[in-house]
Structure formats: structure tokens, C-alpha cells
Amino acid sequence: MSVKLPVTCRRGHSVALEESALAAGITITNHTARGTLKLSGGRESAGAIAVSLDFTAAGSLEGRLSVHIAFRGRRMGLCSKTLKFTART
């Protein structure tokens, strides 16, 4: 799974997030998948992507993707975004 998402920051800036291999570390139990991927931006930033998926019926799922990135400098501050989605095959 991969994601490309603009993430807004507290001070009005935005960050273009592009991550792939989000499925690593996500376990599926009772039709639900949850996991957190840590983001390493080096010395400037750190954060995490939390993924929650519910397999609701054959060929469909509902999910939520939450991103939180904290920048060390005051210019950017804290950046976060939550995206809810539904997918069908």
C-alpha cells in the first residue's frame, strides 16, 4: 500500500507526504487491520502514520489514515491530517 497526501501544518505551511510499503507491520485480526509506521525525517522531523482498516463485506473495506509529523523548527510546527476512506473491488 502507498499513500500520497498533502499534510497541513499548524503555521499555515503544508508538506507533501509520499510513503510506500505501509502494509509492513499491520496485522489483521477479526476482519480488522491496525498498525503504525514511524516516519524518520532525520534531524529535522519525526512522526508516524496510523492505519486502521475494517473489512466490512466481501470486496469492500472502510479505513482511516492519520498522519502526525513534528518539525523541530518553529517555522513548520506540528503537521497532521486524517483521511477517512471506503474502497470496493
Describe this structure in words.
This protein is mainly beta. It has one domain (2-88). Helix content is 0%, strand content 71%. It is built from no helices and seven strands. The chain has strands at residues 2-9, 14-20, 27-29, 32-40, 45-57, 60-71, 78-88. The chain has a seven-stranded antiparallel β-sheet with strand order 2-1-7-6-5-4-3, with no helix packed on it. Strand 6 and strand 7 form a beta hairpin. The chain is elongated.
Question: Secondary-structure map with pairings?
Answer:
Elements: E1 2-9, E2 14-20, E3 27-29, E4 32-40, E5 45-57, E6 60-71, E7 78-88
Antiparallel strand pairs: 1-2, 1-7, 3-4, 4-5, 5-6, 6-7
Structural class: mainly beta
Radius of gyration computed on alpha carbons: 14 Å
What fraction of residues sit in β-strands?
over 45%
Number of domains: 1
Number of strands: 7
Mean pLDDT: 84
Short summary of the structure?
It is built from no helices and seven strands. The chain is mainly beta.
Which terms summarize this structure?
about 90 residues, mainly beta, 7 strands, seven-stranded antiparallel sheet, about 0% helix, single chain
